[in-house]
């Protein structure tokens, strides 16, 4: 008799993983994670998976005219996670059927495999909850991501070409979310600026920013806006990179911007440094930051 064995999936086999730390409320008296929490870990990772695809889940499903419902979940336990462990939860779209999407996942602690999982979702009408075909555009987004293709389309150019799309996300972020008056958000600098707008696989606008010419070969970045539910997933960095590339191309030697203090860490991770004191601008605390090119 021949016995075949299948090697366990490795983290490097997955394009997406989510890191989390085991909390006290998730363990028993022996400080071992309750079994049911592993499903919560996978569900948390799935939510972050959609962000990695630049898809704001609720808004995207509404546009697609459906909803994803869990049909079946199976998990195999290999070892236990304990309090304060750092875990890597990896998710992969394994197969797309007519109306179903199969994900598989793993949970690792370092090099130790703890759990493997399969999650089967069905795409269905949210009112009747009857299954319907997975939209071709969603199928393409998933297939493109898993095959290593970009999830964003970046467009750059003048206000006349990109203004309507840029204003869509700027109004959502600055006016609706941050309560900045529309007349303060929109100014005459837009006409002279170089703009970048990021779109996801559904054609939705997810981020934008603009580049102005300052004095003595200094470029100034402004109006950086990213859809709230997608922040921290790379869309803002993609827009900023496009603006920096344009600044380098035209010969700027320094980039400067007024960052909201809540976003200071984002710019620091991309190489910017703070300069001067915190100040108020349109009712929000800001700090000047710069980057030498």
Please provide a written account of the structure.
- The longest helix has 19 residues, at 159-177.
- A hairpin with a 4-residue loop joins strand 8 (205-213) and strand 9 (218-226).
- The protein contains seven helices and twelve strands.
- The strands form two sheets. Strands 6-7-8-9-10-12-11 form a seven-stranded mixed beta sheet, with helices on both faces. It has a five-stranded antiparallel beta sheet with strand order 1-3-4-5-2.
- It has two domains: 11-146, Hotdog Thioesterase (Thiol Ester Dehydrase, Chain A, Roll); 153-292, Aminopeptidase, CATH 3.40.630.
- 28% of the residues lie in helices and 36% in strands.
Strand content: 35-45%
Classified in CATH, the superfamily of the largest domain is Gcn5-related N-acetyltransferase (GNAT)
**Shape-level CATH architecture of the largest domain:** 3-Layer(aba) Sandwich
Q: Class of the largest domain in CATH?
A: Alpha Beta
Through-space gap between termini? 66 Å
- The average pLDDT value, as a whole number, equals 94
What structural class is derived from the secondary structure elements?
A: alpha+beta
Low-confidence stretches: none
**How many H/I helices?**
7
Count of separate structural domains: 2
Total strand count, please?
A: 12
For the CA atoms, what is the radius of gyration?
22 Å
For this structure, the CATH topology of the largest domain is Aminopeptidase
Shape: globular
Spatially, the strands of the biggest sheet line up as 6-7-8-9-10-12-11
The SSE order reads EHHEEEEHEHHEEEHEHEE
What profile does the largest beta sheet have? 7 strands, mixed
Helix content bin? 25-40%
């Amino acid at each position: 008799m021949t016995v075949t064995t299948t090697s366990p999936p490795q983290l490097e086999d997955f394009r997406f993983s989510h890191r989390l730390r085991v909390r006290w409320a998730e363990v028993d008296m022996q400080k071992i994670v309750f079994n049911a929490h592993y499903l919560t870990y996978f569900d948390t990772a799935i939510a972050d998976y959609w962000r990695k695809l630049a898809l704001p889940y609720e808004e995207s499903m509404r546009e697609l005219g459906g909803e994803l419902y869990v049909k079946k979940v199976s998990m195999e336990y290999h070892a236990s996670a304990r309090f304060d462990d750092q875990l890597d939860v990896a998710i992969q779209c394994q197969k797309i059927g007519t109306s179903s999407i199969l994900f598989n996942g793993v949970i690792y602690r370092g090099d130790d495999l703890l759990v493997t999982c399969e999650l089967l979702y069905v795409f269905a009408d949210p009112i009747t909850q009857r299954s319907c075909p997975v939209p071709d555009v969603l199928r393409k987004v998933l297939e493109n991501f898993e095959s290593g293709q970009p999830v964003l389309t970046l467009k750059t150019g003048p206000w006349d070409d990109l203004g309507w799309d840029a204003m869509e996300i700027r109004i959502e972020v600055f006016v609706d979310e941050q309560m900045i008056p529309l007349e303060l958000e929109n100014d005459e600098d837009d006409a002279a600026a170089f703009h970048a707008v990021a779109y996801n696989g559904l054609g939705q606008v997810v981020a934008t920013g603009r580049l102005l010419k300052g004095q003595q070969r200094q470029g100034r970045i402004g109006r950086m806006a990213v859809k709230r539910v997608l922040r921290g997933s790379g869309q803002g960095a993609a827009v900023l990179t496009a603006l920096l590339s344009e600044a380098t191309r035209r010969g700027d030697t320094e980039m400067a911007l007024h960052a909201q203090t809540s976003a200071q860490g984002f710019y620091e991770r991309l190489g910017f440094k703070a300069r001067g004191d915190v100040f108020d601008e349109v009712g929000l605390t800001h700090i000047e930051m710069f980057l030498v090119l």
